[in-house]
Amino acid sequence: MNTNPIPDPIQAGLASGWNVIDASALDANRQFEVDVAIIGTGAGGGVTAEILSMAGLKILLIEEGPLKSSKDFKMREAQAYPELYQESAARKTKDKAINIMQGRSVGGSTTVNWTSSFRTPEDTLHYWQKNFGLQDYAPQALAPWFDQMERRLHVTPWAAAPNENNDLLRRGAEKLGISTAVIPRNVNGCWNLGYCGMGCPTNAKQSMLVTTIPAALSRGAVLLTRTRAEKLNFKGDRVDSLSCVAISADGLAPSGKTITVRARHYVVSGGAINSPGLLLRSNAPDPHRILGKRTVLHPVVLSAALYDHKVDSFAGAPQSIYSDHFLNTDAIDGPIGYKLEVPPLHPLLISATLSGFGEHHSHLMKRFANLHAIIALLRDGFHEQSVGGTVELRDGGSPVLDYPITDFVWDGIRRALLTMVEIQFAAGAKIVYPVHELADGYTSWSSAKKAIEALPYKPLFTRVVSAHVMGGCTMSDDTKLGVVSSTGRYHGVSNLSVHDGSLFPTSIGANPQLSIYGITCRLASMLAQQLTGKPAPVL
Amino acid sequence: MSKALSRRSFLKVGVVGGLALATAGSIYRLVRDPETPRRFVLDERTRNVLAAVAPVILTGALHPGSDDVQAVIERIEGAIQQLPLKVQKEIQDLFALLTLAPTRRFLAGLPDDWRIAKQEEIAAFLQSWRLHRIGMLQTAYHALHDLVVGPWYADESTWASIGYPGPIKELS
């Protein structure tokens, strides 16, 4: 019996006659002919779908994951990770040294992100202007696009008190003279539950799932789920068609049915890793061999700590306090800087993340309610020794990211661990556990400092994770530097665009969702104007 | 173990180790099941490995000899079946390495079958792979770690033991 009191806009939309096709249930091959095919339904695909459908274009959205909605979001990791994440939330880099969290359901990563919404930092944009010839990407030129998306998605600084997990970051940093600030979030009527990462059960999160995609579907867009875009077929300087395969209901294997799409224009919005993967499989023009390169991650390291009081890091808005202090201590192209935030702690993810086994591990888990963690997101991609990784294709054609962590990045990881541990002791931590296979629990800042300085820094010893994959389809009007122009058009192809985080020439230096929203809002508006010959609609 | 023996084993591991994980998998699949299964279904030998390893990884949380052991194996199997098929194949290869006696002895350093292996031997094996100089064995340790602790703590039945109240009942 469904006792869920929350109205479900997806179920209501389906009942109203939206054209949504679950390809896992197809019993025959299918063909579609539309104005624009959009591959991916995350931040880039969602925004593009709404704008182009408002412009009166016939849209087809292609999503590899399932369509899930608030009625399915039960706040349980065992269910949410396989249903809503790429590779069951266990995607890894080629050497398995970095765990990657990316979404895979309608709404993409926006369905499962923690709602932190930052505009692209000005120094990042200046770096793009100076080094990638992106003259149009001045902060004042992008501001109206960020304004538009902030209004559309209800982005406002979190007005309620931070939860204790976030407040410990604030208090510890304050004691050390490190400034913090409040995180803007894309929520409307948030219940402050703390389960954003498993799909918002109350539809408060203004993800693509409940905003742009329903808007596009209500205007007649077609949504194909459980459909993998396999190959763009080129004819001369155009994409002639797109070959897709239907995926089984469990999401693991092709069902045997195929879907062929013909469109006037194609927009690739599969996210960094999957977008360059599709373009590589399709042998898209790449005369300078740069497709898939410069894929950056904001490599994240973390430190856990035990307090005498309950922290309940699983409850409340997951991220509400941050510090950019260590992004601003050095030049953007100097020693690598890092942003400080906290992660929500839930049993599956934190038990897998904490190092060690046996009594050591179970003792820490028994004090789960008293655990606090800080994460440091390293700003990669701004230095010649931090050029990111390369997306490659495995034998079966699936993409994998080869991301070697350089000594330059390891230096930042060591400094970040020191910072986080010092903040935790300043906030009153009793025992601090920097997450490293050779680290121990430390009861004083001096003993922790000594240990962290002496630890070896190499793959698989320090737990490194990422939820922010960017780059791989670098944007630049200089074809030696990028495969996509500053207007999002793929170089050398007349009807192909890329609209997602894979465009970014460097990492953002902040959670990237609003950067993707704002920048693709501009690109989609230009595309709408070009395809219709009329002024673009405003969201 | 004498120094000479230790050095010889070490060299063998160095030479053999990198290849063994992949080859043991293909041999295993050849021997056990010529029709290579696309999805990894845990067999008796794999369950024996898990029944030995899980209580060591979860010492202090799981009660050895209780229903907990079967329960965690079921949950691990459930988690494996939702991983991409290529990852399922890698996990199958890992368990092949652990179940074939020669590779179990050489690479895991376990003289006895899993059913009679001692807790401290298993702990020593886990610790050696955890810090192993061969990256592939280190990743295998991480796979075992994550496959055991993740499904264990993801299950509601363990939440009271760690002070986690779970999500609000009205919406879950």
Automatic annotation (TrEMBL), chain A:
UniProt similarity note: Belongs to the GMC oxidoreductase family.
Entry keyword annotation includes Oxidoreductase: yes
Protein name: GMC family oxidoreductase
InterPro entries per UniProt: FAD/NAD-bd_sf, GMC_OxRdtase, GMC_OxRdtase_N, GMC_OxRtase_C
Domain (Glucose-methanol-choline oxidoreductase N-terminal) ranges: 83-300
Residue stretches making up the Glucose-methanol-choline oxidoreductase C-terminal domain: 389-519
Binding sites annotated in the UniProt record for FAD: 501, 512-513
Listed cofactors: FAD
UniProt xrefs under SUPFAM superfamilies: FAD/NAD(P)-binding domain
GO molecular function: flavin adenine dinucleotide binding; oxidoreductase activity, acting on CH-OH group of donors
Alphabetical keyword list: FAD, Flavoprotein, Oxidoreductase
TrEMBL record, chain B:
Top-level taxon: Bacteria
Protein name: Tat (Twin-arginine translocation) pathway signal sequence
Lineage: Bacteria, Pseudomonadati, Pseudomonadota, Betaproteobacteria, Burkholderiales
